[in-house]
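Journal club side-thread
Mid-discussion, someone asked how the predicted structure for our own chain would compare to the paper's figures. Pasting it here so we can look after the session.
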Amino acid sequence: MTGRRVVVTGAGRGIGEALAAAFAARGDRVVVNDLDAGAARAVAARIGGLAAPGDAASAEGVADLLATADRELGGVDVYCANAGVAPKGGADAAPEAWSQAWEVNVMAHVRAAEQLLPQWLERGEGRFLATVSAAGLLTMLGSAPYAVSKHGALAFAEWLSATYRHRGVRVHALCPQGVRTDMLTSTGEIGQALLAPTAIEPAEVAEEALRAIEAEEFLILPHTVVADYYAARATTPDRWLAGMNRLQQGLEEGAAR
């Protein structure tokens, strides 16, 4: 499966950059999207792709991005909804933080699917990769907006797969834990304590994502232990929540020292 027409959002750095490079290395034609125009152009130049800077969360931004892909590549075979934000805070997080998390982490996926589905359903094929994070399967201490919105991203990916699989639309949910990116750095002490010890490189995430895509797997877990945590959350929720609360207490005690 080479020569596909691929769009990757948030591809100026991190997981998105690694995904764009991995697809390009396999002979696919890649559109590199990012809000940071300079980063998008630099990645596109390095991998031989096409830079399409812009906002992949707004309806207008998605329309512009897909118009570029249609004009330059003739369409989209694989759409990687990878752009994401991780604002800090709990129930007291600013309304702007909740709104941004919802718009970028969930509605960007919805808007892309809305505009892609008509052409995909007409031709009977299309592939949607959602970068969800293990937070969408579990939670993320220290960031309620991130945890909640990533659960929404997973729910939408599941809905897409359940609704359109028989019509040729394939959906994948990429759910890594810690990845050595700028986003991990920005999570502060809580993120570092929880995720940094087992963090992996973006290239490892991309490699596992492409393997799972070829294997037609919905749930992509670069950290295999996440499957055990997910099972524990589903089958013994009180025990799992008690364990997460112990982690929270440990973080609070460490911060108080």
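Post-session note: Residues 5-227 form a domain with the Rossmann fold fold (CATH 3.40.50.720).
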